[in-house]
Amino acid sequence: MEVKLLTTPEQFSAMEYNAAYAMLICHANTDKLQSEKPAEFLKRAIKAEHFSVLEHITLTYEVNNLSRACLQELARHRHISLSVESTRHTLKKKLVDDFIENEVIGNDMDKWEYLGWFRNFASKRPDITNDELKYYLPEFWPTNLILTANIRALRELITKRTNPAALEEFQDLARKFVEAVPDEFKYLLEDCVHE
Ligand SMILES: Cc1cc2nc3c(=O)[nH]c(=O)nc-3n(C[C@H](O)[C@H](O)[C@H](O)COP(=O)(O)OP(=O)(O)OC[C@H]3O[C@@H](n4cnc5c(N)ncnc54)[C@H](O)[C@@H]3O)c2cc1C
Q1: Which candidate in 68, 125, 161, 175 is catalytic?
Q2: Which of 39, 78, 80, 164 could form a disulfide with 149, with the two C-beta atoms 3.0–4.6 Å apart?
Q3: Distance CA 94, CA 96 (A)
């Protein structure tokens, strides 16, 4: 699975400033931003669990080659926005025309055997629609998506999903959300990562 942060460092920086400004508005102290960096105020906000100010920072990620099993779990988080590759528009093309080796499927022969059957089934039924075909989809089917979420929602997700009790693929995804963030902003998320 690949995770890329689409939010640029410049956008990140502007949102970080706004979040610190929002925090200081609460006590009519915005002039303090002239002498201290926004990060210093936001570190204090995290320590004080004043998490609402973190909602002013919203990140957008591109995620490729995630299993539909993991997508199903990801979609349970209600404060994230997702745009997911549509099976209605891509399934037959991906299965019959474009199918190539894929890291989600890996070297598992049972999965390839199932896909061989599935591909053969789809090829023999040219009139079948993608909406009918999707009921045969295995949960290991790889998908691509864009995710947007604010830092508060990401912290919630990372806390739950880096826990060893979570699905291993989701643990990997949650850690990659943190790794994809430029070092100077990692303080916003890294304390949520399970050791
Ligand atoms: C290890 C693990 C095992 C799991 N096993 C199962 C399982 O067997 N079956 C299953 O169905 N799910 C399972 N889940 C999913 C889990 O139940 C949640 O759906 C998922 O983790 C999303 O978390 P959430 O609902 O706390 O928060 P989110 O949807 O991410 O929302 C964040 C927070 O906002 C608040 N919030 C959101 N919506 C509401 C609301 N309507 N009312 C009040 N407060 C709200 C809550 O404080 C919530 O924690 C599992 C999750 C994990 C991590």
Answers
A1: 161
A2: 80
A3: 6
pLDDT digits over 137-190, tens only?
A: 999 988 999 999 999 999 999 999 999 999 999 999 999 999 999 999 999 999
| Whether 161 is catalytic | yes
- Using a 6 Å cutoff on CB, does residue 100 contact ligand 1? no
- What is the number of the ligand 1 atom nearest to the C-alpha of 166? 1
Q: Pick from 121, 119, 129, 194: which is nearest to 164 by CA?
A: 194
Q: Is 166 in the pocket of ligand 1 (CB under 6 A)?
A: yes
Is 0.85 surpassed by the pTM of this model? yes
